[in-house]
Amino acid sequence: MPKAYVFTRYGGPETEAFVDVDRPSPGPGQLLVAVRAAGVNPVDWKIRSGYRRPGDSGERAFPAVLGSEVSGVVAELGEGVEGFAVGDEVFGNTLDGGYAEYTLVPVAIAAHKPAELSHAAAATLPVAAATAYDGVRQLDLPPGATLLVTGAGGGVGAAAVQIARAFGLR
Question: pLDDT, tens digit, for every residue of 140-149?
Fold first, then answer.
């Protein structure tokens, strides 16, 4: 059976464990990804500790798998999936936890991993890059405008600099 790193109840690190889990089956529009690397984000410990986002009921089935971004290899395609094939190297966000040998990634938030990027590097991109992209896009600045990115040395800031450049910003 595949393994996953889970939390068994809300609390501290003492609630975490490696357990056997069923291999997920992809639904329509989903990829089953054999995980090679997963990103670690502050939201992981917040969820484990019981913090809730606005609108989050907090209802969670335990054990629950943490990890919201992954990189890996497509192991199976869900119905209607186009543009991906078994064996493709991909990265993206997962809705059912990335700290597992297998996870489901919706095609809408998956991308092919560039060959020059390691799985470890690709797994750090989805949350930071999506946050940066949304922020730069929402500014709706015209090409040639100047954008000051404070914190450009961090994950989101570094992505924002690159995305701003791609949008023609200075």
Answer: 999 999 999 9
